[in-house]
Amino acid sequence: MNQYVKKLIASILFVFPLLMVTSVFADVEKTSESTQSENQSFDKTTFSEELITSETTESQSEAPTSNTRQEENKTSETSEVAEQTSDSSEEVQVRVVSADGYSEAATTEELTQLLADESVAKIRLTQPLTLDRELEIKRDIVIDFGGLAHNFGTHHIYINETPQSIEFQNFKGTAAHPGGLIPNIDGNAIIIAYMSDFWGNRYHFTGEIKFTGKLDLYDGSKLGLIYAPRATVTLDGVSGVLDVQPVKEGMNAAPGKAYFCRSYQLNVINGSQLYLPYLGKFYGFLDSGDETGSGKTAPGLHILSGSKVSLDYDRADGVSDEGEAVDTLPGNVTFEVSGSGSEFSVNTKINITNDNNRGIIQMRGSGSRVAVSNDGKITINTATTGGFRLQGDSSQIHVSSGGQISVKMAGDGDQPGNNGMRFVGKGLSLIVEGAGSVIDIDKQSGRSSAVRFENGTQKLTVTNGGSLKVRNAGDGKSYVNRLNQGNQAIQFYDASGFLESPGSADFTVTGEKSNIDIRADSGATVDTTGDIDLNFMAGEKTYLVMVGKTGEDKTGIISGDVLNVHLESPTYFDFQNKRIGSETNGIGGWVFQGNGDSSLKIAHSEIALWRKAGATFDNFEKDPDYFSDMTDLSINGTDLGNFVSSPSAGLTNEFAQTGAGMKNYNRISANNQLPMIESLRVPTNADEKIYGHVVVPEGVEAKPRDAWTGEVEVTLRITYADTTKSPVEITALTQGQTDENEGAGYNPWGEGEQGGLFEVQVPNEERLTTGDQVQVVAAKKVRGGQEVTELDSSKTTVDVIPPEPANLSTTLINAASRTITGTGEAGALVSLKKNQAVLSETTIDDTGKFVLSIPENQLFAGDVLEIVLNDQAGEAAAKGVQNKPSTNDEIGNHNPSDTPVVYHDAPPFAPATKIVVEGSLSFLAPSKLDFGQIKATGLIQEAFGQMDGQEKLWIYDQRETKSPWILTIKLSQPFTNDAGFSMQDVLYFKKAEEYQLVNEEELEIVRGQNSTNVQADYSEYLNNGRAFKLVLTKENQIAGNYSAEITWTLADAPTE
């Protein structure tokens, strides 16, 4: 049986008018004047380059029309005068001259005549030409080709030796293959800057040929642009596409021996932008005769002042001597890229099969020089062919003032001569100078060395903040050192023979932040053959990294005949051999390999050592077996196997224990940089411990490593939110990873082991409280005592603990229930959930109480309801908490759903309160009647009780067996006023067509039987809100406020 007590409560309804807000929008209409103004301010540069070019061409072609008319008028006038003064008529030749002084030609014949006329200084072509003859230029001249497509066929423009300055504007042309059985077209071009006499003697043009405006070669021209072996060619602010697709007779698959330009000097200046989608050869200087007799200087290719040349050749042809983007033969030639935005880039798949030609940049003469400076760039991406090949003695690659050279090789075609950089001669030097200056060689597969020197007496110098980076991924196989077998990062091959000493190879790095970083994934970092010695010198505040992996345990990642390594106060050095090996083939590998005259000297540096025996458990990145503070070290002998001296007793003892000098170590490193507090973990009120992460920088660009065990001491201060508690300071040491199996780093709360952490226990094993502040106030290296300066900021403790579960007034809930009441944490959000769906929400008031409403028709027998509290403290991750608990969301901390949640050091978070909807007989009935205000008259009066318009009379039966029921009412408390006077026999209920007295006896309202679990609606018995009536006689008309209670009772119907 279910009972509800209903009180009749007088109520006043206040009605507030609905305020309406009208939004007014002003529509601003554009006037024609403003539109014009906008059009006038439109930036023309937003049009495509082709459109602008088209407009320019049209404007240029319009001008001659006006000029032609002027000339025609002048001619007409002249003819009339001639007729008046002479009987004989004379033919007048008409020449069109534009307003800017260009004589115009529309045919090849007209162009020929203008070239022959020495009075003509400037020519403009007004129509695209198909040449039917050879053209010759004998004087200084300017020719504007108008950007029109000219077809030269098999014809050329010849320039003889007389002129000194020629300018071609807006050149666009194409040419045909010259024919012949095997025509040699490497010296052929559309423009040829020499003439030959009857006896075959050449008379060379030695001046300057300048190109301006647009510059295009189209439709796969079979010839390059220009052959001027004694001249200077200047591309001044030009832009265009150079579509050159030369072929050889019978070899149509080959790219052809043709150059875009062959000249004594090629200057690409003033923001020129050129793209070559096919041609392998951009620049050549191959004539080695009397080319210097003209008095010219700086032969070679110069890309300057923001100019860019891009070659993109994606055909993987196998050719013998074609595809070199730059190819020079004489000595003392320079390839220069200088200036911000200046770049020479090559992306090619070509495979040059001739070993003597394997180089995208090939310079064969002695004293050749590659110079990249002032933020200029050379970028080479190649499939197999080597990046650079310098053949002549005393040649040099020099990168300075922010210049960059980048070479990426996808492979090498299994050819030892395909290298990122290859130096064939003697006395070569590779120099990287200045902050931001970089040479970066990345060879991504194949066993050839990334950099190959084919002799000694070579110098690699990095200074003043420059960087040399070389990496060779290799082929993954193991090879023997010093036998020219492969996989080296840098190789020095002794090609001197028996009668000549190869000399030494010297690595020098000086100046603050200068860096050499050499890595080989499957071989030695630096390897030599024959009698080549190796010398390494690293100066103060420099970086030197050598990381390799040898094929045998008794070979070093640095190997030479005589090996000398001298390190003077470096910021960082690291030599490591990543070979693992085994008991059967030897564990680990050496770092150094050299003869008995070899030496290692380290001055004023920390030193860390890893024993070779630890290689079997991958000890390379874990804590060292020993590390010292600032000290010196001297070792010499074969393979640096003889310890000489060190002022450090600990270091001396370490070598005494292992013996054999460096032979028992696979890594030696020194880090003279200060550690950093990378992060102080944001604490929570669930924490009894505080964690932070300490790292130590390694290398210029390398990711910092975790601090080792006992390497750094940290002092941490806790400032409590409770001001009655004094701040405390606690010290802790870092913990690294040293264990052979799982490591020994801290594992905070089971999140995963990590090295470099420090752990601070809160005093008295208490947990932090919300608002407590933690801060690293000091840190230092344990050995050496250097103070750490980067300490990270203070952190504030974040609340992550959910409220305690709600306490409910009752857990008896059925389908007819409309509210749930209870208590909980003040200010918390309370959510009523069924199957994780929110049915209703409210906020707990300041007294800790709440009332949750239950929507109609939502509850059924057996439903499980959750009452979830959320403290609305906000998302913890947004406040810096790592790995926040699952009970924290964007609103705050909420009760878990099913099982307790364990987080850090706090007691488990208890699940949300749950209740189950009972499967019983229940109902929904009006809970309030209002009979309004009645004025006493002394006569019998009637008043009807007003109900809420939403009131219903619903019967639920969610029992398994549904039986008949009966609903009754009775007056459980009579109408009584404040003075205690009670009215008798005044309340009536309308049943059927009559009102029946309601008193303390049960009055049947309705009988019925449900067939389903959903409600049965009997709201009609409420008589549209007029089911209850008061009948007041004179005796009951006593002034006062009256209230009464009516009890509804739903019960099983009695059986007969």
UniProtKB/TrEMBL annotation:
Residues 78-87 have a biased composition (Polar residues). Residues 805-878 form the Bacterial Ig domain. It comes from Enterococcus faecium (Streptococcus faecium). It comes from the Bacteria. Pfam families: Big_6 (PF17936). InterPro entries: Big_6, Ig-like_fold. Residues 1-26 form the signal peptide. Keywords: Signal. Residues 53-94 are annotated as: Disordered. Residues 53-66 have a biased composition (Low complexity). This is Bacterial Ig domain-containing protein. The keyword Signal applies.
